[in-house]
Task: structure prediction
Amino acid sequence: MKMSELYHDTKLEIGTHRFEAAEIIRFAERFDPQPFHMDAEAAKNTLFGGLCASGWHTCAMWMRSFVDYWTVETERLKAEGIVPPQLGPSPGFRDLAWFRPVFAGDSVTYTVTLTASRELASRPGRILNTIVCEGTNQNGLPVVRFESTVLEFA
Amino acid sequence: MRQNNGLPVLRTLKNLAGLAIVPGERRPGENVTKYSFEDFTPGRVFPLGPKHVTVEEIIEFASEFDPQPMHLDEAAGRDSILGGLAASGWHTSSMVMRMMIDSYLLNSLSEGSPGIDLMEWKRPVLAGDTLSGRTTVLEARALRSRPRVGIVKLRHEAENQRGEIVSVSENSIMFRMAKAPETSA
Result:
């Protein structure tokens, strides 16, 4: 079946991740070594006021949550006798907002909502899905939102 | 679109050649020079990279954040439409972030970014590729809501060793000003 037949306009909860200080620092060392992502003491004197995850770390963990969710979901579909949608790579995203910091110890719950699907006129057999991706912290406050795209092979 | 940003010729040449990270003007009473809002003049270009992308890095990132076969296994990558062991798009974006950090961001009065306007992953980044590129200043304006802080819109392009664009993104970053804006007479 196609994504649009299974999930249209349904907000799916795909997982929760608790951001520990050690992994925040490890990501930052590789990709975003700014003081507020690297050192709890130094972070106190910055605009964020505490050690917080790189925005890219917050996004990358959305991806991990989705892959884990999709692995289980495709098995569930197969068990129900449904051929799972064949997903491909993403051409990109837009309108990404980091609403507030993800501090060490915060737990972010991620969701995905399929909002549009269209067949690519230039590439028969390929569908471009638009998805809204969101993350909310343990206090119910939004931390990240972006509108992404993902290819599907019809 | 491009404007003369009024930089001394030597600094401009150094920037273009990517030979050195040239900090902003040294200011009276400051021991450390950092790029401030005033340094981000529309049309100014900051070089990014080079960054060599290894098999190990691709697999390490994918194992943690995007464990799909084409990011984890050479043969699976070849069999996918990406055509080889390919970095996760989030890995590519994170590497661009690191190139920005090393080029100008860490040595700046950055106040962070509210987000990303667009991110296009235009071509796969494959194991063995070497990324480089540029950040171009698109717009800069003072924030009304925060004195002595401005917001700068930037365009980031990354390309591989063949000069093929692999990612294009645009976002805004806030920077503190080195001095209070001059009031018009």
About this structure: Residues 89-105 of chain B form the longest helix (17 residues).
